[in-house]
Amino acid sequence: MSEFALEARGLGKRYGKKWALRDCTLEIPTGCVAALVGPNGAGKTTLLHLAVGLTDATAGSVRVLGRSAWEKPEVVLPRLGFVAQEHPLYRRFRIGEMLKAGEKLNATWDQALAQTRLERLGIPLDQKIGTLSGGQQAQVALTLALAKRPELLVLDEPIAALDPLARRDFLKSLMEAVADGGLTVLLSSHIITDLERVCDYMILLSASQVQLAAPIEDIVAEHRVLSGPRSDPSAVERLHSVIQASHTDRQTTLVVRANGHLYDSRWQVDEVDLEEIVLAYLGRSPADAPESLEVAS
Questions:
Q1: Using one digit for the tens of pLDDT, what is the confidence trace for 177-190?
Q2: 1, 7, 150, 265: which has the fewest Cβ within 10 Å?
Q3: Interior CA angle at 48 toward 151 and 216, to 5°?
């Protein structure tokens, strides 16, 4: 088994003159539940489509489970589950018919798993896809992906259109699948509070480039909020990475990635939660953003 479920090196995709993703270099460890975070247009869907082989790269490379899904789809796709944002399902099919199609198309299909999951969710097999709620359709799409028994499950904004209760149920189902073991998950979303409950790794995309890629525990541990009398942050910048600076008439507040301990008594040092860290990075201008930043473990 490969050490990394996904590896990208200098990965880029250009449409005409516009780069949807540029110079993306990252590694997602096998066995983790990784959050892919960023604003609309940051390149999240482009990265996922490149990973699962739906489109080819303009630059660089991406390998899934040690191989390229674009170059070797017959090797990679049987080991990969993918749920697109719009949950593409045949609306006129009954759920049982969708399961039969999945069984015929996938050599590793687990019919018992699919039927058991849907029965537990109270979704009858004779119901047509088009009559299901958004939350039920999301659960059916997840069931179809899991029934392949994939090693890597890729989810593109699967909960974006769901209400809070349906989001909770979907994420609960996902974590039950992860608990069974042997599954790596890459989950794209912009709902940070939901991701923090289920993910242990995060990739942050902004302006078509990777800003962070590291275990969430390390990201939170290495960032702090400094507050003190209004001052020029240049002295702090000489020692630490200042991600965001804000000023009032009397006070300066900095979000920093600390390069070691913060001893300066002029600053009050406080912990910062994941959502604040993400917003600080997303609030930077493209000129200030690094090409790529990995947090040391």
A1: 888 878 999 999 88
A2: 265
A3: 75
d(CA 65, CA 32): 13
Per the listing, tokens 């080819």 go with 56
- DSSP calls for 179-218: HTSS-EEEEE-S-HHHHHHH-SEEEEEETTEEEEEEEHHH
Output the six-digit token pair for 16: 């005409």
> What's the pLDDT score for residue 192?
87
Q: Which residue has the tokens 């001052």?
A: 231
The DSSP code for 241 is: E
Question: What digits encode the pLDDT tens for the residues 42-99?
Answer: 899 999 999 999 999 999 999 999 999 999 999 999 999 999 988 889 999 999 999 9
Q: What is the pLDDT of residues 206-216, one digit of tens each?
A: 888 899 999 99
Strand ranges, E, within the chain:
4-15, 18-29, 33-37, 59-64, 80-83, 152-156, 184-188, 201-206, 209-215, 223-229, 241-247, 251-257, 268-271
Specify the CATH number of the domain 4-206. 3.40.50.300
The residue with greater pLDDT, 7 or 135, is 7
Look up residue 89 and give its two tokens.
């399902």
CATH 3.30.1490 fits 218-283, yes or no: no
Residue 288 has pLDDT above 60, yes or no: no
User: Where along the chain do the CATH 3.40.50.300 domains lie?
Assistant: 4-206
Cβ–Cβ under 8 Å, residues 250 and 229:
yes
Structure tokens at 69: 């899904």
User: Would you state the structure tokens that stand for residue 158, as one six-digit string?
Assistant: 């699967």
